[in-house]
Structures are given as structure tokens and as C-alpha cells.
Amino acid sequence: MKVSAYIFFIVGLLTHSVCAELEDAFAKADKLYLNKEYPAGHNVLNQIIADSPGNVDVAVRALHKLCHGEFLELLNEDWPDAGIHNHLWGVAKRDLTKFDQLVSSIIQEAFLELGIFSDNGPIYIYTRDKLLETLRRRQGHYPLTPMERMSDEPMLRLLALRRAGLVSSKHPAVIDALTLLLFLRHEYFRFQEAAQYADELVVANNRQVDWLFARARLHHNIASPRSGPLFRELVGILERAGVDSRMGDVSQRVETYTQGTGGLFVEPQPPLGPGWLGQMQIADESPEWGRMRQGFVEGMAEQVDVWVQGSCISGMNQPYLSRIDGSGHGSTWNVLDQHLKSLDPKRLISLRKLQETKCSVDSRALGMVSATQSELLELFKRYPWAHTAHRALHLFAVRELEIGNSQGALRAFRDIMQHTANPEVSKIAQVGLLLAFSQIGNADKIETLLDRLDSDEEFPWMGSSLNIGEIRKRLAQGRSKVPAKLEVSSLSKLQPQIVNLPSISIWPTVQGKFSAGLEFVKSQFADEGMLLSTRNLLAWYDVKDTQQPVWQDMGRTARRDRSMGRVGSCQPILNEGTIYARWGYQADPYYLVAMDASSRKIHWTLDVTGPSDARKKIPLGNPVLVNGLLYTASGWSTENGSGSMRLRVMCIEPSNGEVLWKSDTQMRSGDRGMQGVIGDVLSVEDGEIYCTPGAEEVFRLDAKDGALEWAHRYPIKQFRHRHGIRFEITGSAPVLVKDTVLCIPRDCNMLLALDRNTGSLRWQSSLLNPVKIVSSHEDLAIVQGVFAIAGVRAKDGKVEWLNHVEKARRGQAVVRGPYIDVPSQKTLYRYELASGRLIESRDFPDDGFGVRNSAILENRLLMITDQPVKKAKDALRVQGSVDALWEVQTRESRIYTPKVGESGQGKFILHAGDRLQCLDVQSNGGLLWERFSHHQPREAYFSGGNIILLHIHRHDIHMSAFNLSDGHRSWDLKLLRGAQRYGRDGDLFFMKDNADRFTLVDLTKGKELSKVRVPRKVGHNYTGFGGGNIHMVRTVNWSHMFWMTWDAGTGELTGVNDPLKGLLGDSEKRFHNSPLHQTQFGRRASFFVASTRQGDRTRGALYRGDYTDRKIKMLHYDARLHDLKAPYLLVQDEGRQREIKDVHCWRILSEDKLDYDYPLDLSRHIRVHLWQNGRLVANNHHKPKTLQVHDLDSKRILLTHKTEDPEKLEAVPAGDEHMVVYE
User: Fold this and answer.
1) CB 876 within 8 A of CB 925
2) Spatial separation of the C-alpha atoms in residues 1150 and 265, rounded to whole Å
3) Nearest in space to 808 (alpha carbons), one of 775, 844, 757, 760
4) Percentages (nearest 5) of helix, strand, coil residues in the chain
5) How do residues 66-101 score in pLDDT, each as one tens digit?
6) How many other CB atoms are there within 10 angstroms of residue 1059's CB atom?
7) Which of 1109, 1157, 1151 is nearest to 1136 (CA)?
8) pLDDT tens string 898-936
9) Spatial CB neighbours of 28, under 8 Å, sequence gap ≥ 6
10) Whole-number Å distance between alpha carbons of 187 and 919
11) How many CA atoms lie less than 13 Å away from 397 in the CB half-sphere?
């Protein structure tokens, strides 16, 4: 008994010891967080989890603190000088439990927006706003830390424990994790996941109205179609609730969303009757129409026949009925016909008899054999229920089969089957349907149709009769061999091969062009050849040698018109050695051209964009080739039109360019909204034509003649875009999945699902940020989003599988057999279509030029990079004129040259036409290398044998270094939030971010060397390099001026709290109420202009601050500093200039020689600027345009260059003895 008690005592001591150690570890992590040592705190908590295997409670507690730690670290990065962590610690009364609860309440308040932190509460109002802004990110003017810096690992680990059933969904740690993940996914446009987390939060919080409202608001903010139903559900809950203060508060907040939302909470008007007709509104509603809606047509044969007669008008005067909800319209004939087909056949007996009587004496019926195809169609549309009209339509279908128009024949045979009451006629039509499917080559549809029929039943066949079994054999004999199963090579076995594009601008000037457009190059293969296409380029390659195209054709001249569309999929048709393309010298070409793929011989051309007298013509998308016929779409308006457009669809015989039919349909929108100029807009399937012109509407047309059947109108006002997301949408032609039409219009970020027969909306979603429908697989649509690839169920929009991918893609996703290949920034992924399971992946090789696009052909991985086809060294050079040694002619170019002593002497860089080109001055402008590069850099530096391009993206600095010898990429560096203050001195670069933190970078390696943060003070500042150190001169609230110096070698920071003295030459007088205007930093001193007020006048004075003794001296009163290129300063003498009219009074001073003074009085229209090598250039823009170069050491003019009348005349130095002049 004593032994047992002793054992229990020892176990108790050990347990107490372990618990104490555990609490000490948690306390240590909390202390590290309080001291802002966040990475160390993360490590302690992760170690606690590792040391407590199987202890779920400890893991959940540690992961909860890790979630808070990630949030607090992001908070500190956003507001480093705000002291937020310490403030919250004080508000929590230095109690850890209360502190954790406070952080949780802040996270939840950011989503719920309950207003629990009042203006007069314990948390300061400005601190509160900063806390919430860190998660909400609504004030885009302030550059916060990218939210991706907050790791989602602890949140995902908590959700994994929840899925395993080890922690409740209602646990505070899980709720915090879901809320943080929601903000993370929302920030990076992963709306599908954000919406899923919002649903889980609502369930976890027992569907409380605050969480319901927050979820509805989230869907409203992301323009989700769920926002209306969610708000309506919430309003219903509030109306049923009793008197409750919380319910009243939510009701008031809901009301703010009811104003100006376009009926967001209005219940949809119920249909007036069954079917499609019940969804339409009729202008002259009558009792007869009411009976018709309800299907009571007995005794109304005459009236129905009159309605059919009035609705069968074709062309632009075709009557239509609009939907009650305003979401589109349908042709009156189709609406009536669909309604009549839905009725009991017995109710149509009298209508059939009446129409047969009238049809049999119609002149078109009497001359049926000699009637044209148009006349046969008109006869059927006038008498769709007459047996004679069915014979006419059968004759039409047979003719269409004979000329190869299987889609038109298919639709005609199906119409016969749906209208006839004669079993023998129905059998004839079914046989015709089988023949049409056989001509199309759709074996699946043939088998499906045959399986529905009795195998012993006899059907008419070629003048005799056969049973279904025999017909099946005959069709199988005539069917081409089933193609062998596609062999999909493993990604690991693919042989990489570079494809070099011609060195041209491959896209015209279009909206949203955020790159050179290489990722949008389309590839097609035939035999051993490859066709690459963009709007400006057609190029044919031998796949065995892709370094140089066999031939190339540019579609543009120097004409500078602008495309109506955006960069997208520009894919001509390559079929049996012929290319069918929209081609011409306009940004949006009018003509469809058929050319030989090997010789480029033009077979025929055809204007497919409207009549010759049209006021405006707009080609819409790529042509399509379906079952041997070409289809095109375009928009046009009349000469005296008011801006509304017509949609023209044409069916063309590809062998000779003959137009088989064309149709014009009135569109609701004008030309300004069209976004579908470049891309896929047409699809033809099952006898139906679907079109998304990118103008607020989706159309379905009849493949027999292009007649409109229905149009669906979608609201683009629901569209939202941020930071260029709108320009990611390449859009898709409609895809038919069973009886659902799916499409992504190019002017909307919605995935729309429409009823195939009526065009009514089944569902819509923007949560994936959809870009393109890649393909369909069984009942799934494979949708590519900006950040995801997903399998979406067509019938209800449920996402069956989803995989996150990087936004920076290298080409478009492509289906290969049962897989889909998705290229991302660095990796090619392969997923299974059915499940979305990752099969394999492969990294793209890095050859210094970067992979921008990819394609797979058998065992080849073909990659387009930034390296174009190599040119001869003298490709750009032309013979010089006047006093020039040589010339290089470019358009819209910028030139960059190294300064004296920098890398790349004797070389200069041109940026023109989406290309970066390096030329050699010493070899008379010889081309050394070039590469594709779209954005013109803000700055260009020469250092370490590289040309370093600096770009500004929002608030961040992006730097890319390219080797000057061969153009290979040396390194990339991204500096966050440093776009406002940065500078360079030799091989060092610095930037100051929004938190007053300096970062020093070695430009030779592209590496950060060190960081230091200056205590924040509100005011105006200038920052730059000088004398090997970094200096910052700033005024604080205009009352004091400070000059701080950061020694880059030792890291020492001086002058932080030392106000400057020396105002107006008085060494003891502080710069009080003296605004700072300009600052330049030289090799020996800094120079700045500060103004003072004398009576009613304000005058600026130029000051010098020596780096050695940091004393301030006034150099010139009433002056302005324009430039400093050590050792010379360009100063404008404003005092003297006021005395002399039409003259700029310049003075050049030297920081090395205090007695140096070179005055220049020049005309006001002469611009002057300093060069680094002790030269000053004066540019006279009046005739004759003249450049003068002054040597500042000798104070004399070295060179005068005159020219006749160029549009522009500029010059840049090229070494010590040369300059480059561009006109």
C-alpha cells in the first residue's frame, strides 16, 4: 500500500513537472511575440507540438497561438511604429488569456463588422482602424505588406484536425483559422475557397444572423450571384423574428444594401404559365393568349395559325418576345413552336388539318421540286404542322446532306421528327438523322439513337427497308476506322525544344496588354509542320528545327489603328494544307483569307464583317470549321444607325469561299461594349449555333439558315475587377454539355449556365474568377480560373474538384486524352480530368530567357521563350546621314546608356516594340542581342556586367538583371513597398519602404545586404546616396528639418534627433517653418532648396551640407536646383530671371570648386540638362532644331547639331567621346 502511494506521488510530481515545463514553453512563446521576435515564437510553438505527440489539446492550443502569431506578425509588418502589440497587451491588462480573447475578437470583428470597438473604447480609434485594415485591405492608397506573408500552415493544420474529428468545428481556434483563411483567399481572388469558408463559419456559429449577414455581404462584394438569394433568405429570417435588438441592428445594416442594388431583394416574378411561353411577356395580352399559355388550344386553330403566320418573318424584322425578368428574348416563332410541341398531340389535330389544307395549295408546295432551299424553309416555318411542309423540309435536308452541310441536315431531320404525327415520316427522318450523324462522324450519337429503337423494327433504307440491326452494320461499314487511343507521353520523358519567334511586335495596340503576349501564342500541328499565330503574326515552322520559321507573315503595316478587343486566342483554321484566317492590315481585319500553308498562295478572300455600306464593322472572334463548312461572326451597324449593332453570322464553303447563307440579328448593345474581337465566340453542335460576341448577350441560331432562336442577356454591372483581373478573361465559345449551355463571355467574369432550349439562366458563378472553359468531360466542364483549374458540374454548378495554380501561366491549359496539362510560372502540371488528381509535374528548364508558352507534340516539349530569332549583327543599322556615322531606325523607343565608369561602356540599350535590344557603339550600331520585354522600365542601371531594369508595380519595386554580353537573365529581385523612395550609387541600391525601413542591395548580385529602420516622423523627405552613404533630409510638420545619414558599411545611423541649423546663412538659426522643396546628393555634399517667407513673398534658397562636418552653408538666394551630375549643379537664378523677359537664367556650380561659376542665359524654349561626363546639352525645339553640347570644364561649346524638322530631337551620351542622337 505504501509502495502504491509512493508511485502515485512520483507520477504526480512528474506530471506536475511536465505541465510546468509546457506552461513555461507557452509563456516563452508569448514573451517572444511581445518582443516582436515572431519567427522565434513560431519555432517554440512548433517545438511544443513536436514534443507532445498525440496530445490533441496541446496541438490545438499551440496552433491557435500560431494563427494569432501569424496575424500579429503581419500587423507589425504593416504598422511597425504603431506599437500595436504593446497597446493590445495593455488593453488586455497584461493577462495572456484576455489577450488571446482580444485577438480573436479582432479577427472576427474584421469579418462581422459589428462595431464592437467604439471610437471611445479602450483601443485607440486609429489603432482599431489599423487592426481591421490589415485584414480587410480596403484602403488601396496605403501600401500594406502582401498578405501572403501570413503563412496559412497553422490554419490548414487546424482544419486537418477538424476533418479527422479531433476538434470541434465550433472551437474558437477553428473559427479563427477559418476567418483568417477567408481573408487570405479573398485577397488573392480565390473566391470559391473564401465562399466555402464563409459557409463553414455560418454553420459553426449556428447560423446566427450576424454571420449570415457577413456571408451575404461577402458575396455582394465579390459580385457573386449568391448574394441576392442569401440576402433574401436573411430578410425572411428577420421578418419572422420577434422584437430583438440584435435583429434590429442587422435589419438596419441590411437596409444599406437595398438602396441602388437593382432589385437585389425583390423576389423574381413567377412565370405566367408553364414552359417557355409562360416566361415571356406579350405586349397585347388577350384572353386567347391566356388560354394559349395554359395549353388550351382546342377550337383556336385559326387563331394559332394567324400567330404562326405573323411570327415566321425572317431577317432583321423577325418578331420576338422578351422575358418577364428582362434577361433576354426569343423569336416568337420558336417560343410558339416550343410551346406547341410540349402539348398533348391530340390538342393539335385541328391545327394540323388546317395547316395541311392551306399548305397543299401554296405555290411553294406545288413547285416543291424546283423550289430553292430558302423557299422550302419558308414553307416549313409557315406551316410547321402540315404533312406537306414536312416533305418540303425533308427535301431541304437531303439537299443539305448532298452538299455536306450535315449540321443543317441534322437540324432539319430533327425538326421533322418533333413535328410530324406520321410514323412513317418519323422513321424516314430518323434514318436521315443517322446519316447526318454518320457524315459528322459522331459514332456515340449513332449508337445512342440506335439503342433507343427496336432492333427488329423495319426502317426505309435506300429504296428498300432494313431492320435496325442491318442498318447498324451498314453504318459501321461506312464508318472510318476508330482512331487509336491517344498515347500520352509522360511529362518526364518529353524532350525540351526551344521555339524562337520572329523579332516583331506580335500583337497590335489593344486593351489590357500586360505583357508582350507570348503566353497567348496559339500552336497547331500538321504533318511535320507547326503553325504559330497571333493577331500580328502567322509563322510556319518545321518541328525538327524551330530556331527559324520556314515563313512568316505579318498582318500589320505601320498603320496605327487600335483593336476593339483585348489580347486573347487568335487561332486560324489549319485544315488539309490550307489556312483560313482573319487577316489584313487593320488591327481588326474585315477579310477571311484562305491561303496555302506551304506556299502562302491566296486561294480566296472574303469580307465577312457586313455590307459594304456599313457605318462600322467589327470582326468577332476566330472562324470555326465544323463538318466541312466555315462559320464566322461579326458586328456591323448601318450608315445612319444610332449605335446599335447587328450580329452577322455566315456559313461559307471553304473550297471556294462561296457564301451558303448569312443572317443578321439585332443586338441590344452598341459597339463600345464589345470585347470579343479576339478570341473564340462561335460553336456549332447538334444543328445549333451558339455565339458569345462579348456584348452582353449570348445567342442561339438555327444551323439551317442562321435564324435567331433565343438570346440571353447577362448583367455586366455585376462584374468586378481589381489590378487587371478583367484582362485575364480570354473567354470561351459556348460549350454544350448535355442540355446545358456553358459560356464565359469576354466582357463578364461570370460562368453562365443556360437552358439549351430556351436560353433561360440555370445558374451562374464568378467565384472561380473564370478565364476559359477548356473542355468538357462527361457531365463536367473543365474551367480555368485566374488562380485555379476546376471541374464544375454542368447541371448545377457544383465544383467537383479544384486545384490551385499560380496566376503567372505559361500558356493555356490543354486536354490530352484523359488528362489536362496546366502550365504555371515554373512548372507544368498534369491532372486527371475525372477527379482532378495530380498525376505528375515537371519544372520548365531555365535557359536565362524564361519559358512563356509551351506545347506538346508527341515526345517534344516545345517552349516559347523571350529569345526571338537571331538577327544579323547589322540588321538594325542603316547608312548614316549628314554628320552621323550610322543610324538605327526605331519607333516608340527609349534608349539607355551607361554612365562614365559603369559596366557596358560602348554599348547602349533600346526598348522598342516589345523588345529589349543591345547595340554596340564601337561596331557602328551592331546588334549584340535582343529579347522580348513589354514594359518600359522606370530606371535602367549598368552594373556588374548587367543591364538592370527597374519597374514599379503598384507600390513595389521589381528589378531584373540581364547579362550585357548575351542577354541572359542574371537575377530578379522584388522589393516590397519601396516605390516612392529609392536611389543608386555605383553598385549599391537602396529603397525606403512605407515603414521608413531602408534596404541596401548589391546590384552586382541582386542580394539584400542590410536593413535599418528610421523612427517615423510625419513630414516631407528626400532620400538618396551620397559619398558612399545613404542620406535622408526631411522636415517634420514644417517646424524642424533633420538630416540623417546611414553608414552602409557600419550600419550606424546619425542625425536622427539633431535639427539642422544655418537658415539664410545664420549658423545658429534653425530651419523653422521653412518648407523643403528639392534635395540632391553629390559626392562630397548634399544640396537642398528650402523656402522662407518675406512679407507676402516666398523665396527659395540653395543650401550645401558637407558630409565631413555636416555644416550647412547657403550658396544662392532666390534660386532653384534643377539637376546634379557630380561634380556640377544646374541652378536656375530666379531673382535675375525676373528682371529679364523670355530668358532662362542658368548657373552651373561645382561641388568640388566653390569658386566655379558658369552662367548661361538661354531662350525659354531651349531645354537644358546635365550629363554625367561633365557635359551640358542645350536642346532648341524651334526651327531649326538644334543640339548644343557644352564642355563644363573649359566652359566652351563642343558640338552643334542641326536638323530640318524632326518630330523629336534628343541625345544621350555613349562613352566619353560619342553621343547617340535620335530624331
Assistant:
1) yes
2) 72
3) 844
4) 30, 35, 40
5) 999 999 999 988 887 778 888 998 999 988 899 999
6) 14
7) 1157
8) 887 888 888 888 888 888 999 888 777 788 999 998 888
9) 44
10) 43
11) 29
